[in-house]
Amino acid sequence: MKKLSFSFLVLCLTASFSYAQSSADQLIEDALSTWDKHVALNALMLNGIKEEYLSDKSASGGRNVGEQFAHLHEVRVMWLSQLAADKVKGLDNKIDAQESLRKEYLTEAMTASDKVVREVLKEALKNGTRFGEMSATRFLGYLISHESHTRGQVILAMKQSDHPLPPQVTYGIWEW
Q1: Which of 152, 173, 171, 159 is nearest to 56 (CA)?
Q2: In Å, how far are 2, 7, 8 from 13, measured between CA atoms?
Q3: DSSP label at 63?
Q4: Fewer Cβ in 10 A, N or C end of the chain?
Q5: Distance from C-alpha of 103 to C-alpha of 111, rounded to nearest angstrom
Q6: Which domains does the chain have, with CATH numbers?
Q7: Burial of 88 by CB count in 10 Å (0-12 exposed, 13-18 middle, 19+ buried)?
Q8: Tens digits of residue pLDDT in 41-91
């Protein structure tokens, strides 16, 4: 009976560890897929804007639409330079006023920082790395919150400039 009980205990512990590991792996994949979807929504929005409208500003001023996208990229690079300096080589850390009016340049910059953020998040989620006071999951939440706020500013600037985004964009950003 003791032999059976010990074997059963080992089997249960092994199964529990395996289940816990697969659950952890699934949570990591879910977090990364959340980042991927967020990135796709940013791309949907940028792709839905005519290049000549990148200079649009909201009635209250501030950054123009192109500068808003440049800001997203620059904030990512700022964080990445503190968290994984070796991975930001080649990323533009300051998109100038002229570059921010070029849709192709913004798309390339955003795509490059999208990939580095994903890589850093994946490593941090697997290793339990913290970013100061933030866990990797909380950092992901910060990035998505900040960038979603900025998307709202872009929508407002476009609307106030009489260049509203097409419905497939304004409704599409809610299709998670």
Answers
A1: 159
A2: 16, 10, 9
A3: S
A4: N
A5: 12
A6: 33-174 (1.20.120.450)
A7: buried
A8: 999 999 999 999 999 999 999 999 999 999 999 999 999 999 889 999 999
